[in-house]
Amino acid sequence: xxxxxxxxxxxxxxxxxxxxxxxxxxxxxxxxxxxxxxxxxxxxxxxxxxxxxxxxxxxxxxxxxxxxxxxxxxxxxxxxxxxxxxxxxxxxxxxxxxxxxxxxxxxxxxxxxxxxxxxxxxxxxxxxxxxxxxxxxxxxxxxxxxxxxxxxxxxxxxxxxxxxxxxxxxxxxxxxxxxxxxxxxxxxxxxxxxxxxxxxxxxxxxxxxxxxxxxxxxxxxxxxxxxxxxxxxxxxxxxxxxxxxxxxxxxxxxxxxxxxxxxxxxxxxxxxxxxxxxxxxxxxxxxxxxxxxxxxxxxxxxxxxxxxxxxxxxxxxxxxxxxxxxx
Length: 327
Ligand SMILES: NC(=O)c1ccc[n+]([C@@H]2O[C@H](COP(=O)([O-])OP(=O)(O)OC[C@H]3O[C@@H](n4cnc5c(N)ncnc54)[C@H](O)[C@@H]3O)[C@@H](O)[C@H]2O)c1
What we know:
Blueprint: E1 2-5, H1 10-22, E2 28-32, E3 48-52, H2 58-67, E4 72-75, H3 82-87, H4 89-109, E5 114-120, H5 143-162, E6 165-171, E7 173-175, H6 193-201, E8 208-211, E9 223-224, E10 226-228, H7 229-244, E11 250-254, E12 260-261, H8 262-273, E13 279-282, E14 291-292, H9 297-303, H10 311-323
Parallel strand pairs: 1-2, 1-4, 2-3, 4-5, 5-6, 6-11, 7-10, 8-13, 9-14
Antiparallel strand pairs: 9-12
Helix pairs in contact: 1-7, 2-4, 4-5, 6-8, 6-10, 8-10
């Protein structure tokens, strides 16, 4: 059995469906405070035991680890808005760092020492070279990225001093939706480009804002590496297998090794939806690196994983969800 924090969120809920379909007969405990997640995103199944809780409540978490035969934790729960992290750093240190440390305390006290952690390409900061491999210096340029790096460092210490096994997955830009159309991205406020572009296509937003067109990229707009959320989910299943196989502690990028600019995304959204997507050019946003693209070779070697969805399919699944959102 595993424990999943933040399982009612975007990536966590996709992981849960993938995990349950890949490991029939398995069960899991979900801990989510529903601050940003959606209970409807969880499958209605006896295999899912849901706890409406903070991950940082040591007493509750300890009792969960004592009550259920949990072998490993998949830790998604966090606050994830870069802009908000700059305005309210204490919230981010509290929710992403303190709550994580409390979770680790409960794990250590009950001898659950295996974890898959949702880290981020934001830990790298401004790229010194591209694509970015796992050896790239970690110099976050925003508070959000810093909190993710601190948790990585805590896990490295737990691994080297207390024998924990940790897989730290550094995602690039998660996107797309489950093929079933039953779950997808639903953030409030939404800050991610693809849902914003698709909502503009649907007429729910008047105009998309594009921040900066004078970067040193092919068309001047920022380039990002978009990875389908179900590909991320599969990688987490492989990471759990790696932990079971006793492969020790690893940091692994999850991306596609290919970037798309903001204008390329808008054009692909236009092609997939068949609708016009008006956009307005805005000044650059502080702290946006020109390009963030993963060198994802290690994930192939260590996890035996490779992404299955290309950009068109990512946007097609996001579009199916966006047109018929359940939450
Ligand atoms: N979405 C991306 O592109 C991306 C990229 C890199 C890393 N990540 C990381 O992946 C993880 C999941 O991201 P997401 O996009 O699914 O975010 P999300 O906001 O959709 O999901 C996070 C979930 O965690 C829950 N949560 C937050 N703090 C909690 C706490 N203290 N206790 C219990 N539950 C709590 C929220 O209610 C929500 O359901 C995060 O750790 C994020 O930093 C995401």
